[in-house]
Amino acid sequence: MARVFQGTMGLVLERFMIGFLYLHSDVSGHLEFDVAADDAAGLGAIRGVSNPASIPVKNEFLALLRRNKRRIGGAPSRFLVLPNLPGNSQHFGSSLPMRAESEPYCTDTLGRPFSCERVHVVDCSVLPSITGTPPTLTSMANAGRIAALSQRES
């Protein structure tokens, strides 16, 4: 039974893709800071406030993905689409670390997964490690490096 489960999960995970949609600040949620009136009450409170304008933007993007499911090789699952609270962030990295030569579960120095010539992973998943701080600038620098080197190669 365990082998059947592993085989089935292997097939599912081979085709599973995780993506993030980052919204423009015009439609994103925001944080509100309530400052305490006196020192006895503490520093105050921070509260995340969702923006209802983000819902149609998200739905439009999901519809675009569904319309192009043949081109992108899949479609989003409605029950797996999860919104984050304002102020929340995700720090994923090192799931496809770079190697001099691509090998299974790794990428080459241009972010190409094993046996892929025209696919480049340019986010933090190809970095060897990530820091506890937001990795945005590091990820952007790596994406720029990969784009520049890939352009020279073609």
Shape: globular
Sheet with the most strands: spatial strand order: 1-2
Radius of gyration: 20 Å
Judged by helices, strands and strand pairing, the structural class is mainly alpha
Strand content: 5-15%
Q: Any idea how many domains?
A: 2
**Quick check: average pLDDT?**
80
The arrangement of helices and strands along the chain is: HEEHHH
> What is the first-to-last residue Cα distance?
47 Å
Largest sheet: 2 strands, antiparallel
Helix content: 25-40%
As residue ranges, the low-confidence spans are: none
The tally of beta strands, per DSSP, is: 2
* Number of H/I helices: 4
Give a description of the structure.
- This protein is mainly α and 154 residues long.
- It has two domains: 64 residues, no CATH class; 66 residues, no CATH class.
- Helix content is 32%, strand content 8%.
- The chain is built from four helices and two strands, in the order αββααα.
- It has a two-stranded antiparallel ribbon.
- β1 and β2 form a beta hairpin.
- The protein starts with a helix and ends with a helix.
Detail the topology: elements first, then pairings:
Blueprint (H helix, E strand, L loop, with lengths): L1 H13 L15 E6 L8 E6 L4 H14 L1 H4 L63 H18 L1
Antiparallel strand pairs: 1-2
Tell me briefly what this model is.
This protein has 154 residues and is mainly α.
